[in-house]
Design a protein that fits this description.
globular; disordered N terminus; mainly alpha
């Protein structure tokens, strides 16, 4: 009995220390055995738009006459023979080392070195796995500064399996969100150093990070608020922050300069395509619902409603509502960023953001929402055992629900009959009911 107890203690300790590696192994297995509908679609539609900079530059030598799979989505720029993608080059930049490795392997193995074959799709899978793992790692290390290991474990694992984060790391690795998730996580990890150990290096580095984050998804510029308002809990702290900025204003200019440098290649592409340095590549699309944002639909509609498909995130929202008044762990700032983002997403003409599993625009924001989530878990963990046990049951149920909605997801998005079918299977799985 003593040996069994020692083994269980060791297993628990091992799990709390190494669970990210277990997640990576599991995600790698699921990626290696990915359903053909997802594997063939890794470079397709929006994913192809982010990616096509790489075959254009390294295989075709430019965008003139460039062949693509999603022809209707990425036409030639009017009056030219140059292929236009509405998406910026940031994701392609992060994928480029993996693309170059795949391109070399394709040449050495005699496979078509066309940028679209299996080696290139596998390369994107590996890129997403690596960036997703690193994003989780930096998030874990940031949370460990404030919370006990069990709270960090429940937060990281809960948000990974209980939201659409898993989907965009494994099933749609070509989309921008897992890359933004990593960048958000690194930015938040470095935020304290920006103020505690100021200097040209950290100013330029954070500027570069924010520039890349904004380049990939412009609305993610809202993350700047987290840095500016970091650890501001009183008027005295706000005055100190203003004095800090005034005393180091010259050095701080390195941050926007580094951000601007990130955009130079994008400006060059737009100039090459259109003759103008700045280009609104989305055509007639825009924030047309600004005066009547569809926030309720963003949250709960069957067409990608965020909390309908990722109800685990609802615990983070609850943490925001309960924890903002004290602003511990910058929860008030996180809540402000969430509200601004909700308004922006609900104002976009396509509030459901196209084919997706859940509302995909929230994936990178789990790095911020982890703080109110962890704070809520830490409060529960201070209560009696019955409350902790009840929470664990809820936690497991929410993770189970979202994970199996992910497993049985068929693009472009769910409808009510399909949702009911999958939920019915979840509730009756012991009876051997199959989809």
């Amino acid at each position: 009995m003593k040996k069994v107890t020692q083994f269980l203690i060791y297993a628990r300790s091992f799990g709390l220390r190494h669970y990210l590696w277990l997640i990576l192994l599991f995600a790698g297995y699921r990626a290696a055995t990915l359903h053909v509908r997802f594997f063939n679609g890794i470079i397709w539609s929006d994913s192809e738009g982010y990616y096509l900079y790489l075959p254009a530059l390294f295989i075709h030598g430019g965008f003139e006459g460039l062949e693509v799979l999603t022809e209707v989505q990425f036409p030639m720029y009017p009056g030219t023979n140059k292929r236009l993608t509405r998406y910026t080059y940031g994701v392609a930049l992060m994928q480029s080392p993996f693309f170059l490795a795949a391109h070399s392997m394709a040449k050495l193995s005699g496979q078509p070195a066309d940028g679209y074959g299996p080696p290139y799709r596998r390369a994107i899978q590996i890129a997403a796995l690596l960036y997703g793992f690193l994003g989780l790692l930096f998030l874990k290390r940031t949370l460990e500064r404030h919370f006990r290991p069990i709270v960090v474990f429940l937060t990281v694992v809960g948000l990974y399996f209980g939201t659409n984060l898993y989907h965009y790391m494994v099933q749609e690795p070509g989309m921008s969100h897992i890359y933004s998730f990593f960048l958000f996580s690194l930015f938040i990890y470095l935020a304290p150093r920006f103020w505690e150990r100021p200097g040209p290096g950290i100013f330029a580095g954070m500027g570069f990070l924010l520039g890349l984050i904004t380049l990939i998804r412009p609305t993610n510029l809202v993350l700047l608020l987290y840095l500016l308002l970091f650890d501001i809990n009183s008027w005295a702290r706000l005055r100190e922050r203003m004095q800090f900025i005034g005393q180091r204003f010259g050095a701080l200019l390195l941050a926007p300069l580094a951000s601007f440098l990130v955009f130079i290649p994008q400006f060059a592409y737009w100039k090459y395509i259109s003759g103008d340095w700045l280009l609104w590549s989305y055509g007639d699309e825009g924030f047309t619902n600004w005066n009547q944002p569809r926030v309720d639909m963003v949250l709960f509609h069957i067409k990608n409603g965020w909390l309908l498909f990722s109800p685990m995130a609802g615990l983070a929202v609850l943490g925001c509502l309960l924890g903002s008044w004290k602003n511990r762990y910058n929860i008030a700032v996180v809540f402000l960023i969430l509200l601004i983002s909700l308004y922006a997403f609900g104002s976009w003409w396509c509030w459901w953001f196209g084919g997706a599993f859940g509302h995909r625009s929230f994936v990178e924001f789990y790095t911020l929402l982890a703080f109110p989530y962890a704070w809520l878990v830490s409060i529960v963990w201070e209560q009696k055992s019955v409350y902790r046990f009840t929470f664990l049951l809820l936690w497991a149920a929410l993770a189970y629900y979202s994970y199996f909605l992910t497993v049985y997801y068929i693009s472009p998005h769910y409808d009510w009959p399909r949702w009911r079918e999958v939920v019915d299977w979840m509730l009756h799985f012991r009876l051997g009911k199959k989809l």
